[in-house]
Each structure stands twice: as structure tokens, then as C-alpha cells.
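### Sample
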Amino acid sequence: MLTLTKTYYDTLSGPLGDVLLTSDGEHLTGLWFAAEPPADAVRERATFKSYASQLRAYLAGELRAFDLPMRQSGTPFQERVWTELQAIPYGETISYAELARRIGQPTASRAVGSANGRNNISIVVPCHRVIAADGTLGGYGGELWRKEWLLKLEGVNF
């Protein structure tokens, strides 16, 4: 029997514009910039109190690591990339090529970039900490100005 999971959402305004947060009621399942909630989602502010509190603290430079229950699903490769993203320390960056090496796929830089683009939990799963091998920003689904802002918040000079 198929069990449907209810989706909850709330929005938060801040220095990066409007942020949409989604949850399955137990886990953070999404964090997107300037996005619309899923049509079947239910607005539920209480569910997001802890998520919003930690996000505000991070954006104010008061929090370096999130302690949130999260869930996102993808291919085994994507999930390895997302797990490794969480190992990149606050204030540090690595290249797409280095991330590919760290997951044991040294020739998969482009696939790593694609997996980053499929990350549904921006900021918390810090895909913004991955940059091009030449030190430029590379890509970012949330627009490059936000990636630059996040890296500057973390004290990264580039």
C-alpha cells in the first residue's frame, strides 16, 4: 500500500531574499530561494521554529554548523556527494574536482556539479562551498550573488 507523506512549508525573509522551507513533519526536506511551495503543501509555522531559528543565526554569523534532522533522496551518487558536502568546514571551499576525489570518483567533476544542482537543502547542505578549480565561483542554483554572499559571510576571500 502506498503511503503519501504530507508536505509542510513556511517562508523566511532575510538578506538573501525569501527562503522557502519544506518538511515532512519530522525532517527538513527543502530550502530554496524565491520559490513557490508545492501545491499540496500545508503552511505550518510551528514545525519550522527550530529550522528558522538556526537559519537566522547562521545568516547573522552566529552559527557555524546546523543541527537539524534532514531528509532528501537521490541516487546513491548524489547522496554520497551531499554527505561529503556536509564535511566541508565552515569558511572553507573545495573544488568540484576535489569533491569528486573525496567520494572516490576522481573523473566525475561534472557529475558532482550536477549533484550539487540537485541538492534540495541549500545552505544547510553547503553546496555553496564548492567552487571551480581556478578559484572562481563556478555555478549555484540560488544565483551567484547569493553564493558570493554566503562565502563572504563565512570569511572566504576570493
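The mean pLDDT is 94. This sample (Methylated-DNA--protein-cysteine methyltransferase) is used throughout the tutorial notebook.
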